[in-house]
Amino acid sequence: MFEENKKEFISDFGRKLVFTLPCERIIDKDSSGEDLLGIFDLTHTDSTLGYQAVKNSRPRLTCVYEDVKQIVRNSIVKIEGVETQYKVFSIEDDGTGFAVIELTR
After folding, report:
1. What's the DSSP call for residue 85?
2. Are the C-beta atoms of residues 13 and 41 closer than 8 Å to each other?
3. What distance, in Å, lies between the first and last C-alpha atoms of the chain?
4. Which residue, 32, 48, 52, 65, is most buried by CB atoms nearer than 10 A?
5. CATH topology of domain 6-104
6. How far apart, in whole angstroms, are the C-alpha atoms of residue 35 and residue 16?
7. How far is CA 61 from CA 48, 51, 67, in A?
8. DSSP letters of 12-30?
């Protein structure tokens, strides 16, 4: 059976990540011992309710699931090139070998 190297998809646009779990354990390497990478998205949504306008940001990471399956809610993540530190809100396996990690401040 053909198996894709999922890390190739992340390597072009990925940023280095350092996770600190609530138990103080640091995770900064992937399953092959290299720097842990993820694609960072900071999407914005605009909505209106009557005359009230609301802007909302939805920061998230896309990573290889195998590399981040031990990450849990409330872990802290430092993202290369991003000043803000985020907390993990949720982590979902998308069924294709990637994980989408929703972040919060």
Report:
1. -
2. no
3. 41
4. 65
5. Thrombin, subunit H (2.40.10)
6. 6
7. 27, 33, 13
8. TT-EEEEEE-TTS-EE-B-
Contacts of 49 (CB under 8 A, 6+ apart): none
Q: In this structure, is the dihedral angle defined by the CA atoms of residues 25, 30, 36 and 42, taken in order, positive or negative?
A: negative
* Domain chopping of the chain, boundaries: 6-104
Alpha helices in the chain (DSSP H): 6-11, 65-68
Give the integer Cα–Cα distance in Å for 40 and 30.
Answer: 16
What does the radius of gyration of the chain's CA atoms come to, in whole angstroms? 15
Residue 1 scores a pLDDT above 60: no
Please give the structure tokens belonging to residue 10: 């992340």
List the Cα angle 41/89/100 in 5-degree steps.
Answer: 45
**Residue pair 45/83 in contact by the 8 Å Cβ criterion:** no
CB 10 within 8 A of CB 62: yes
